[in-house]
Write a structure and sequence with these properties.
Blueprint: H1 9-18, H2 23-26, H3 29-37, E1 117-123, H4 131-141, E2 145-149, H5 160-169, E3 173-178, E4 188-193, E5 197-200, E6 210-218, E7 221-229, H6 241-256, E8 261-267, H7 278-289, E9 292-294, E10 308-313, E11 319-325, E12 336-340, E13 349-355, H8 362-370, H9 373-376, H10 382-400, E14 403-409, H11 419-438, H12 441-471, H13 475-486
Parallel strand pairs: 1-2, 7-8
Antiparallel strand pairs: 1-12, 2-4, 3-4, 5-6, 6-7, 8-10, 9-10, 11-12, 13-14
Helix pairs in contact: 6-7, 8-10, 11-12
Length: 500
């Protein structure tokens, strides 16, 4: 039996901490064996890094994969049985949702949402004094097709300034119209973005309403759009509700038989929101009889009635989503916007051909002219001399300034747009969002005031720009500027051809 050896706690701690590696040299063999038997030198397990015990273990980020590792031929380690591997759930979100990550899967960038054509129908009650606001509306809202009712255009030279303004501000759009020629007012029109194939179809004439029929095609899809304006019955037009129902019934018989998608829109001046209105019920009955439905559900006129409509087939999804009634601004009618299932075209492009005249070396050109046939062998008579001059100079121009082709994107033009105008538009849009959210009359009145203020600033900025442009132009430039402002750009309705 070993003799009793006594150590104090301080002595044992001192031995454990300071001489753990060299303690064998400090004590004899008998004492060291006794310490080992008592378990004093054994290392105890700790929970360092764990804040509150075993049930609160720190999580380690990991990635689970079913991808096999690349074999390493240089190692002599035994192979691994991958059948024993299982996916490990990874928790990266606070709600403890479990997600499995598959590294073999190729993740692609999400494709853009299917693009759609944006169509707006709007009774502007005259275009003559509202062209700037209409063009600004099309540009700001990125509208593809704008159907206008009550253009108040005449279809003659009186419309030149209005149409020239549209062509100048919206060079990337086509304008087609069906004016009322018999008397003032009325008229329907389309403003269509270039890139669509727009065909104006021959339409029947009805006494109780005006309409225009166009087919818009993009890629392999097409939509037939009917723009309708029904004036309120009066002593002047001598139209009655029964006349309209009869005419519209005949119109629907033709429209419903069209195989392609159709959209009927415009100002019908019918209170479809009034369930007790017999005329509105008869109108709805005509739509139901041919399988059509009406999409606008809120008021579109300042009187609180729903007059501006969007109609399509009940079984068709050509109109996607809900029809949006936008706040009124320059008219007593609200614009009504919708999206149709037709892919919009890319921005129209134009090929420009030009010579870089400013890069011509004048000395080299002068030397070539002096050594050309104009000096060495001039023509004998005037007619041949003119032809020789044209031929030689064209050849030298192509030599010193070759013809260059450049493709440019045609965009709306607003060179008069200033920072003050942009700031005022921001205020107008803020007021618009507020009235769309609150639906309060006071907010609507504030929005109307903002629209009037913006309209005044826009017309002033536009007028000042053109005034400066005219004052700084020479005689040649002045003619071109005035021609753009007063004469609409008209393209020939038929392609070039030779007559036999």
């Amino acid at each position: 039996m070993y003799p009793a050896i006594k150590y104090s706690s301080s002595m044992l701690i001192s031995i454990s901490e300071s001489v753990i590696n060299t303690v064998h040299n400090k004590v004899d063999e008998h004492t060291w064996s006794t310490i080992n038997e008592l378990g004093i030198t054994a290392k105890k397990k700790t929970r360092r890094g764990c804040r509150s015990g075993r049930n609160k273990q720190r999580k380690i980020s990991s990635i689970a994969s079913n991808r096999l590792p690349v074999p390493n031929s240089q190692t002599s380690r035994p192979s691994i049985n991958h059948s024993n591997l299982v996916p490990i759930p990874i928790n990266h979100n606070p709600k403890n949702a479990i997600k499995n990550v598959d590294l073999n899967k190729t993740y692609r960038k999400t494709s853009k949402q299917h693009a759609e054509t944006k169509i707006v129908t709007w009774n502007t009650r005259s275009m003559n004094n509202k062209t700037s606001e209409i063009c600004d509306f099309v540009t700001e809202r990125d509208i593809d097709v704008l159907a206008i009712q009550e253009t108040w255009l005449y279809g003659n030279e009186k419309d030149d300034c209005t149409l020239a303004d549209v062509n100048y501000t919206l060079p990337n759009f086509d304008f087609v119209q069906s004016p009322r020629r018999s008397r003032k007012g009325g008229g329907v029109a389309f403003v269509v973005k270039k890139g669509y194939s727009t065909v104006v179809n021959e339409a029947a004439v009805y006494q109780s309403f005006e309409h225009m029929d166009v087919t818009i095609t993009q890629r392999s899809s097409s939509i037939r759009i009917f723009n309708i304006y029904r004036p309120t019955p009066s002593k002047i037009n001598k139209a009655t509700q029964s006349d309209f129902l009869e005419d519209f019934s005949a119109f629907l018989e033709t429209a419903a038989s069209i195989p392609s998608e159709i959209v009927i829109l415009g100002d019908f001046n019918i209170h479809v929101n009034d369930a007790d209105d017999n005329f509105a019920r008869s109108f709805q009955g005509l739509l139901d009889a041919v399988g059509l439905r009406q999409h606008v559900t809120t008021a579109t006129h300042k009187s609180g009635n729903t007059l501006d409509l969007l109609i399509s087939r009940s079984t068709s999804n050509v109109i996607t989503g809900m029809a949006e009634v936008m706040p009124r601004s320059i008219s007593d009618h609200s614009p009504v916007r919708c999206s149709v299932n037709l892919h919009p075209p890319r921005a129209p492009r134009k090929i420009m051909k030009y010579h870089k005249i400013r890069q011509i070396n004048i000395d080299d050109l002068k030397s070539d002219i002096e050594s050309s046939a104009l000096y060495t062998d001039p023509a004998s008579n005037l007619e041949e001399r003119v032809k020789q001059y044209e031929s030689v100079m064209r050849e030298l121009l192509d030599k010193h300034a070759p013809l260059v082709e450049k493709t440019v994107i045609i965009r709306p033009q607003s060179p008069w747009y200033t920072d003050d105008l942009r700031h005022e538009k921001q205020k107008k849009r803020q007021a618009e969002r507020k009235v769309m959210k609150s639906k309060l009359e006071i907010d609507r009145q504030m929005y109307v005031q903002r629209c009037k203020s913006y309209k005044t600033m826009l017309e002033t900025a536009k007028r000042d720009y053109h005034r400066t442009k005219i004052s700084e132009s020479d005689s040649k430039e002045l003619f071109r500027v005035v021609d753009k402002l007063c004469n609409p750009i008209t393209e020939p309705p038929l392609p070039d051809h030779d007559s036999n």
